[in-house]
Amino acid sequence: MYDIITFGSATSDIFLRLKKESYQILRKKKKLLCFPLGAKIFIDDLKIASGGGATNTAATFAKQGLRTAVCTKVGQDKRGEALIEELKKLNVETQFIKKDKKYSTAHSIILSSPPEDRTVLIYKGACHFMESSDIAWRKLKKVKWFYLAPLTGKSAQLFGPLVEFAKKNNIKIAANPGNSQLNLNRKILKPILSQIDILILNIEEASLLAKAEEEIKIIKKLSSLTKGIIVITKQKKGSIVFDGKYIYKAGIAAPHILPLEKTGAGDAYAAGFLTGFFKKNDIKYAIQLATANATSCILEIGAKKGLLAEGQWEQQLGPRVRVQIKRCK
Ligand SMILES: Nc1ncnc2c1ncn2[C@@H]1O[C@H](COP(=O)(O)OP(=O)(O)OP(=O)(O)O)[C@@H](O)[C@H]1O
Ligand SMILES: [Mg+2]
């Protein structure tokens, strides 16, 4: 019996920290990262780490002592092998990771330009082409929670079947749908969302789904789509949670500290939240653990390196996170 199985992507990430003088940020409608065409661009630092929503969140769950498995797809290559070995060392069950013959392990190249946001180049790979036949459905019945990380590309079509399977088998569902899923036809999306127990989105995704800009309107619209807990993250502005009755607002754990690399913050927050909720059924504690885990994540390069282990929370950033609770009218 597993506590949690995660579904979603598995990638190898290359982090390139750009030299300040080698690029410019242009402020048009959106901010643009610019290089001179044809130039040779020097970088300050290069690091390689594993990534992907399914493996990043599994790393938090396992480090926090939950019995965790990952369901994803890698290629038949060294990068896929290394990812599986890393997960095994973290005590994550890897038997549901399929090795694809056709596609290689997905790759991300992260152009880091602090203090500005990072830019991610994605080479689609095995995890973006997951199909129903890649999933060992019969072995997945005895699980307490499914965690659905963003399912990108072809894999987005598994969103509905995974939710349906979970409901049939009394498995709870936490989901952090990405753009591929949020852009599914509304007629397909609505019945899926209505079954989710914890819906986690960043503010841009929440606004896209709710077709609204104002926070309170977003929450009201989302609560008409799902009866579950709604979690919205807002980068350095913290997060907001709605449980159907109360709105919880929290800032960040260490406002004075500049993040080193933001990749994985969303995964660290989401997995921290579900861990806290799983262990104590207490939203305030879940927010504190989530925020502490996200902060710890962005103080390191790589989406897994800074994740908090069980018990680290007490000595770390969690208790510093103030959570305001208000009844929603
Ligand atoms: N610059 C920052 N400083 C401090 N904390 C941050 C910062 N950015 C993110 N966080 C923390 O991480 C949480 C999740 O971040 P964010 O809202 O950026 O998620 P996301 O957009 O899903 O991230 P990702 O790009 O990893 O998917 C925030 O609620 C906050 O607690
Ligand atoms: Mg995210």
From TrEMBL:
Keywords: Kinase, Transferase. It comes from the Bacteria. PROSITE patterns: PFKB_KINASES_1 (PS00583). Pfam families: PfkB. The keyword Kinase applies. One of its GO terms (molecular function) is kinase activity. Residues 47-304 form the Carbohydrate kinase PfkB domain. Belongs to the carbohydrate kinase PfkB family. This is Carbohydrate kinase PfkB domain-containing protein. It comes from bacterium (Candidatus Gribaldobacteria) CG07_land_8_20_14_0_80_33_18.
